[in-house]
Write a structure and sequence with these properties.
Chain lengths: ~150, ~190
């Protein structure tokens, strides 16, 4: 009679330990949103309503003030899996992002690259940002800016 | 044995359905030979039943008493013997261990139930799912409050043929790392 009871106790303990182990595991993927924006200067300031509110707020600060019109070119929701490069098809050129690793369950280490669509890399970087924070790459062009911004969580 | 005989036997045993039973009863009214067969079957049944009852009565009561005595003795021999050191365990520890001895089954059952409930609670607790988690994301990433987030770190940056600057915009909503790329031809143009 005791053997089956002991078996049940051990099974319950294994179940709890397994669940605890899962909870301690590092995430292996993140959900990201990328926004391609064209920044220009116009007579009437405008920010495309499709641009994320937090991003729109940042686009009106500091060096971005040289422009007052922000038009959303494309919005790309992407799931990034560890070590798997995701291409970002842009209206102007292209980009790619790779999740390198999750640090301390809350920080995202990733590589990010943007090109001109003709094979020339404009910028490529590796950075670590907290989940929910933003990475914004601005490629300045005559009279306008090409912006690729992303946030992951 | 004909089919009619079988039906007569089934009638005697009460095994026929209503329609067939009515047919057999009609036949019994008409056929004295069939009635005689059914009567004999009834007599044979009575004889067998009486014989079995007599055989049961033939077992002497003393034999039953012996059987019960044997059963009681077997039960008593399996019960834990009350030893002489039982009074010595009357201390606090003795009483505790005695309680566990008596209720071991309840304690184990309680522990198992608590373990099972705890496991279910852990598995089914609200918030354990990440509704927006992408495929393959077995553990959701932790989004820290904005005030607790670290400054973004740009570990490497390449901007072939262009100048680059790195900025950090920090506000109440967190951080935004800005990589500002100015192609050389744009600078020259300016």
């Amino acid at each position: 009679m005791r053997a089956p009871l002991a078996g049940i106790v051990v099974a319950a303990a294994i179940g709890i330990c397994t669940h605890t182990h899962d909870a301690a595991a590092q995430p292996t993927a993140v959900a990201c949103s990328f926004y391609e924006v064209e920044a220009t200067s116009g007579k009437t300031p405008s920010v495309d309503s499709g641009i994320d509110a937090l991003l729109a707020k940042r686009l009106q600060k500091g060096a971005f003030k040289q422009w007052n019109t922000f038009k959303l070119l494309s919005k790309l929701p992407k799931s990034l899996e560890k070590k798997k490069t995701e291409k970002l098809p842009l209206k102007q050129g292209g980009g790619q992002a790779t999740l390198v690793e999750i640090v301390d369950k809350s920080q995202i280490r990733m590589t990010f690259a943007i090109d001109d669509g003709k094979g020339k890399t404009l910028a490529s970087s590796t950075q670590t940002v907290d989940a929910g924070d933003w990475l914004i790459v601005v490629v300045e062009q005559p009279d306008k800016g090409h912006i690729l911004a992303g946030t992951c969580k | 044995m004909s089919r009619d005989d079988i039906e007569l036997m089934q009638h005697a045993d009460g095994e026929l359905d209503e329609r067939l039973d009515a047919e057999v009863r009609g036949r019994l009214d008409r056929d004295p030979e069939a009635r005689a067969v059914v009567d004999s079957l009834g007599e044979i049944s009575e004889l067998v039943r009486g014989r079995l009852e007599l055989a049961g009565d033939a077992v002497p009561d003393r034999r039953f008493e012996n059987m019960w005595r044997t059963i009681h003795r077997e039960i008593a021999s399996e019960a834990p013997a009350v030893t002489e050191d039982a009074p010595k365990r009357a201390g606090l520890w003795g009483r505790i261990s005695g309680w566990f001895d008596r209720y071991r089954g309840h304690v184990i059952t309680g522990a198992v139930s608590a373990g099972a409930v705890a496991a279910l609670a852990l598995v089914l607790r609200p918030g354990s799912e990440a509704p927006t988690a992408p495929t393959g994301m077995n553990t959701p990433i932790i989004v820290q409050p904005a005030a607790m987030r670290a400054v973004p770190v740009i570990e490497s940056l390449e901007t072939p043929g262009a100048n680059a600057a790195v900025l950090n915009i920090e506000d109440e909503d967190g951080h935004a790392a800005v990589i500002w790329v100015t192609p050389a031809d744009t600078v020259e143009g300016i």
